[in-house]
Write a structure and sequence with these properties.
5-stranded antiparallel beta sheet; alpha+beta; 5-stranded mixed beta sheet; homodimer; about 290 residues; 60s Ribosomal Protein L30, Chain: A; about 30% helix
């Protein structure tokens, strides 16, 4: 749906000191820290199928907003779970769902602070709200990249439909590591695919980009086109000042020896992107 | 669905200093205040019908969690909106919905800090997460009532199906007034009806209650049975120490001359409730 930015014109938005819609999370002042807030959802037939393991759906439902939190350098806090259950779903489904959700919560240090449930006519739907915290000076947004910054992605992209979309590990450690060292000028998580997401980061930062597509890290048996467009990678995309790139790359290898970090291009002053970029120019015309 | 408390055994819950599931809102430390967090939902066919005015549904979607916030003495902050939209719903529906949501947001001082949207196969569903703040010493929970406290309700009960359920005004001013004067030992909002909700407050506080049903304030053309069981009143239910009752009642009249405040009974040391109470004893046996 493309109407989101139009709808936001109809409601009051946050001012002064609060980061509102448009980034991976909202951020509101909370003592010496910023409180990060993210709401995310998964719906049957869109983000998962009925036959898929409910525990894995529960894992995914919590790990998706955790990936957004990672992209802002946050430490996870509390989650609130809302689920809509159709008449043909038994309580056992939700027990399995909660087992998977609980596994993710324990693994990443989240506690469940509340929730709500409702019947609905058809289809399973779940909304998860997640809080997190980040020291004010360590917040990383989508909008901080300057012209000439280098563009990096973590891990490998593409092929998420083979199972990764239900099994991924949000890059919380990596995001915190990058943010606490202030190595990124801008960051976001890759949920819609690099092809759609990189233009969003560039647009938010008011710059363009150049990418060598042959450098984009691909999962096995994945084409470059798929790596750019499959989506649900849940990797981090970020920019780094050239002066810090050497330190970033050498320290990354020591900290995360098993996780790839790949420089794929750079931002540009001219607000343009490669003509063969799969996201297309529309991404610059419409709000993300 | 009765499985909520069972599901909570499968996930990690908050500890030390955080108020988790079971009250109107969760509460987490945020500087000198507590940050209140509430997630609530409305689903087509359960909380509203397709033919009802979408703007009123938007009003309701935000005012329901605002009513929960009122019951903890909170001042509203930000809201995050998640909506699930079936194929047969046009963008115009969501525009109207957002107009009503925006009206409630402006009226009660809420800003929209983010959200998410998804398609789903059938039925409209909306989840709203709301933040608020309350000074630590002014938080009112469900669990603070002591034996012999007097039980009060605001407004009049019953008959919500005639339109009140889409038009109500959350008792934010009244809740803040009660909390800031520390006049309540326990408080909650009436969403499932006094019959179901009062036993929850009593159970959370570890006491019983006695109520003179003839005192329960009723809306015009509503029986006492309906006033106890219709639900969706969105009034406040609270308890007050007898020593403060005189001050409460006289100051209330000056502050809220148009809103009734009715003393309907008292809490008891013995964990029992009137044998003719419509909620039935089951409410004491199962968790709220």
């Amino acid at each position: 749906m493309s109407c989101w930015s139009g709808l936001l014109k109809l409601v009051p938005l946050p001012e002064k000191g609060i980061l509102g819609p448009g980034d991976d999370c909202a951020a509101i002042p909370c003592g010496r820290d910023l409180l990060l807030l993210k709401t995310d959802c998964v719906a049957e037939g869109v983000h998962f199928r009925r036959g898929e393991n409910p525990a894995k759906v529960g894992w995914k439902a919590l790990c998706r907003p955790l990936s957004d939190l990672a992209a802002m350098g946050g430490v996870p806090g509390e989650a609130l779970i809302t689920f809509f259950s159709p008449p043909d779903v038994e309580e056992e489904y939700w027990e399995e769902f909660y087992r998977g959700l609980g596994r993710a919560a324990r693994r990443f240090g989240v506690t469940i602070a509340g929730g709500e449930m409702s019947r609905q006519p058809a289809g399973i739907a779940i909304s998860v709200t997640l809080t997190g915290r980040v020291p004010r000076r360590e917040l990383v947004t989508r909008s901080g990249a300057g012209a000439g910054d280098l563009i990096y992605v973590t891990g490998s992209l593409g092929g998420s439909g083979r199972g990764h979309h239900l099994n991924f590990t949000p890059r919380l450690k990596e995001g915190r590591w990058i943010a606490s060292r202030r190595l990124a000028t801008a960051m976001m998580d890759l949920s819609d695919g690099l092809g759609a997401d990189l233009p969003r980061l560039a647009r938010a930062s008011g710059c363009g980009f150049e990418v060598d597509q042959s450098l984009v890290p691909r999962n096995p048996r994945v084409t470059t086109a798929s790596a750019l467009s499959d989506g649900e990678d849940y990797e981090l995309l970020f920019t780094c000042k050239p002066a810090l790139a050497g330190r970033l790359e050498s320290e990354w290898k020591k900290a995360f020896s098993k996780t790839r970090l790949t420089r794929i291009g750079n931002t540009t002053k001219v607000k343009s992107m490669p003509p063969d970029w799969p996201g297309g120019w529309d991404h610059f015309a419409t709000s993300a």
